[in-house]
Specification:
It is built from 4 helices and 4 strands, in the order H-E-H-E-H-E-E-H. By secondary structure, the protein is α+β, with helices and mostly antiparallel strands. It has one domain. Strands 1-2 form a two-stranded parallel sheet. A two-stranded antiparallel ribbon has the order 3-4. The radius of gyration is 19 Å and the shape is globular. The chain starts with a helix and ends with a helix.
């Protein structure tokens, strides 16, 4: 495993490898990377590593809290995906012949409400 980590660092960042300094806590960019990786091929997020590949390390006193935060993130993401999968085919009928699905509401919200 150590050799794999060294190789990832030597190869640098790419489609499936991201370096995050994060010495004491997980930054928002970690969560954005998780989302990005989940839309593609998966990948490796190496904490305690600068963008140029210098290894700074993670504060040992922060490791447990960081692991809990990461686990909570993944759990929340899984719950959201389960909800979406369950309801994307549901139709909500409005007055007249109009109908709207949750899928279109999510798409609308992600592009308009989040500033994307």
């Amino acid at each position: 495993m150590l050799e794999k980590l060294k190789q990832c660092i030597n190869d640098g960042e790419g489609l499936t490898v991201e370096f995050k300094l994060c010495k004491n806590e997980l930054h928002n960019s970690v969560f954005e990377t998780v989302s990005s990786f989940s839309d593609r091929y998966g990948g490796y997020i190496l904490l305690g590593v600068e963008d140029n590949g210098d290894v700074e390390g993670v504060n040992p006193k922060s490791v447990e809290g960081m692991k809990k935060n990461f686990a909570n993130l993944i759990d929340a993401y899984d719950q959201m995906m389960d909800f979406i999968a369950k309801h994307t085919l549901d139709r909500f009928h409005l007055i007249g012949d109009q109908s709207v699905s949750l899928r279109s509401k999510i798409s609308c919200c992600s592009s308009n409400c989040l500033g994307n």
